[in-house]
Specification:
With 783 residues, the protein is of the alpha+beta class.
Amino acid sequence: MAWAGTAQTSSRIRAWLASLIRRDSRIGGHVRLLAGPAYFQLVRLEPILKRSIPVLIVFFITYIAVSRALGLFEDYRARDASARDQTSLLVTAVAANLANLDANLPTPAASVDLRAALASAVPSISYGEDRYIILADKAGVIRATLPTKAHWEGRPLVDIIGTAQPLTVFGSRAGVVELRLTNGMPAYGALGQLSGKLGSVAVIQGTEAVFVAWRASFGNSVLMFTFTALILLVLTYAYFAQIERASEADQLHQDMTSRAETAFKRGRCGLWDWDLARGKIFWASSMFEMLGVEEKNGLIGFGDMEALVHPDDINLGALAEQMLVGQIDTVDQTFRMRRADGQWLWFRIRAEVVERSESGIRHLIGIASDISEQRHAAERNATADIRLRDAIETISEAFVLWDEDNHLVMCNTKYQQLHNLPDPAVRSGTPYAEVMRAARQPVVHTPIPSEGGDVAGARTYEAQIEDGRWLQINERRTKDGGFVSVGTDITQLKRHEERLTESERRLMGTVMDLRQSRQALERQTQQLVEMAEKYAGEKARAEEANQIKSDFLANISHELRTPLNAIIGFSEIMTRGVTTSFGPEKFAEYARDIHASGAFLLNVINDVLDMSRIEAGALTLETEVVDLAAIVTEATRVFSPAAEEKQILIATEIASGVTLTADRRALKQILLNLISNSMKFTEPCGKVTIRARSVGEAVTVSIEDTGIGIPKDQIKRLGQPFMQVANQFTKTHKGSGLGLTIARSLVDLHGGAMKIWSTVGIGTIVSIRLPRVSGKDLPARVA
C-alpha cells in the first residue's frame, strides 16, 4: 500500500508540473535553462562512458573471480590438513588404548572379544561418515572393524587398501597418505603398529565426507559469480540497447505510421475515431478512397456519414445515443455504405468506446473493413450448396457425408429412412457416435474385402436392418480427411442368392453376378464422388466465366455510353443553336465530333457483332490468293495520319513475292487490329515494325512495337473471348477490348496460330503463322 501511495503521489506531481509548464511557457523555459547544462554535459561524457563502463565491469568481474578462487583454495587446504591431522591423531590414540588392553585379551581372542576391545579403545563418535577403524593380526588378516563390516573380517588388509600402497610397505612410518580402496573409494589412510598379541590398527577416512561442505560452498560461489556476471552483462547490454533504441525511436515511429497507412489501403479497411459528443468522425484516408468521397482534413460530419449508410442496416443516431449514456461500450456490426458512383459496399465495423481522460469526451475508436467480396462469395456458395443438396437428395441411394472430426455434414432422406433416424439426429454437426446411437442397428454386419486391393480409408460392407432389408454400404475417404458413405438396397439380390443355394453351379453363377454388381456399385459410388468434385470445378469455372462476362459488359456499357453522350450532347447543342446565334464553324466542329463518336460507336458494335458471329460459328471464309505486301500496305496507309500525329514510325520489312490463300477481308482485319493495338500502346516518338516472310509451307507475320509492354502473368489471358487485362476502372485507352480476341479467332479459322512476347517497359511482339494454302469456306470456331 505504501508503494502504491508513493507511485500515485509521484504521478500527481508529474501531472501538476506538466500543467504548470503548459500554462506558462516561461516556467518551461526556466526548466530547460536549468536542465540544459547538465544534459549537454552528459551528452559530452557519453562516449567516455560507453568505453569505460565495459572495462570497469570486466575488471570488477575479474576481481570477484580471483578473490573467490583464492578463498576456495585456502578453504580446501585447511579442510585437507584438518582431515589428515584427525586421522593421524585417531590412529595414535587407538593404538595406545589397544596396547593397554592387549594384556587382558584371551589367547586366542575371539572376534567378539576383539570387537569389544576395539570399541572400548576408540574414542566416542570417532567412526561413521565414511570413517572406518580396522584391527588386524600379525599376519595382516582383519579381525575386527568399526563400524562392523562382516564381509571384511577374515580377509587380508591388503584386499581392502590395496597392495601397491605406502601403508602396506612402510606401515606406520608412512603417516597419513591418500589412497584408493579396492572398491574404488578415495580415502585418507593411516596405520599404527601394535607390540602385543595384535598386529596393527588402521584408520580409513573417506574424502567424500571431508569435502562435502567445501563442494557445496564451491557450487554456491560459482552460481553467485555466474549470476553476478550475467546481471552485469545484462545491465551493460541494456545500457547500450537503450541508447540505440533512443536514436531509432523517431525513425521507427515514422515507418510504423507509413506502414499502417499502406496496410489500411491494401487491406481495404479504415480507421474510425467518432467524437460522440461533437458528432465529428475522423476517417483514415483509405475510407475516403474506398467510398470515392472527397477528403476534408480526414473529418466527416455525422449527417454526411448518415447519408452514406443504408437506412435498413443500421440506425446511427440510436447507436450514438446508446454509447453516450453508456448502454453499450463495443460495436461489431455489418452494414452497407454507398460509394460516390452509387454502388453499395458492405462494411463490418469493430470498435470500442474510449473515454479521453483529459477531456472526459467519449470516442468510438475502431476499424471498418470492406467485406463486399466475402458477402458475394457467401451468397454464391449458398446457391451452390443448395444445388448440391438437391442433387444428392434425388439419387436413389442412401448418401451421408462426414467431416474430418466425424461430425455429420449432410445426408439425404433415403439415409434417414433406412436407419429410422429422427430429425434432431440428422442436423449438421451431430457427432458420429450420437447418430449411431439414434440409428436402427443392423442385425448382421459383414465386411467385404475390396477386389481391387486395399485402398486407404475405403471399405465396403453389407448390413441387414431390422425389417429384413439388406444394404451394401461403400465408404471412401475425402481429400479433407472426412469420408462419404453410399448405401444401396440389395435386398432383392440377397433373396435371389438364398434361392440359388440349392445348386452349386447356380450358386457360383450368382456369386459372379454379385461380384460384378458390387464392382458396378463401387464404380457408381466413385462416380458420385467424382461427380461432386467435377461439379465443384464446373461451378468455379462457371463463376469465372460469369465474372468475365460481367466485366466485359461493364466495359462495353462504358464504351457505348461515352460516344452516345457525345452524340446526344452535341446534337442537343446544335438543335438549340438553330434558334440562337450559331456559327458554321461550331456547326462543323460539332458535326465532326458527332461523326467521330458515331464511327467509334460503330467500330465497337462491329467488334461485338464479329465476336458474336465467330462464337456462333456463323462466319465463313472466302479464300483467294492474296499478295501479302499489298495487304500490309493498305493496312499501314490507314494508320499513317495517326502515326504522324503521335510521331510514331511505322516500318515494314516484307519479303517480295509472299502470297498465300486466305480471306482478304479477314486478313486485313487481323493486321488492322494488331497494328491498332501497337499504335494505341506505343508512346510518342516510338516505332512499330511489320515483318513478313515465307517459312516452308507457312507465312509468318510479326508486329513489333516499343510500347509499354504487358506483364507476363497477363499474357496467357490475352486473346481469350471477353477477357481483358484492364477493366473500365483501370484502362486508359478507348475500345471494346475485343481486337486481339477477334484477330486470334480469325487466325485460328485460317488454321494458323498466334503467339505473344512482351516485356514491360520495352515493347511487345505479336507473331501470326498462317498456312500458305488454307481451306475454303471453313466453318467458324471459337478461338
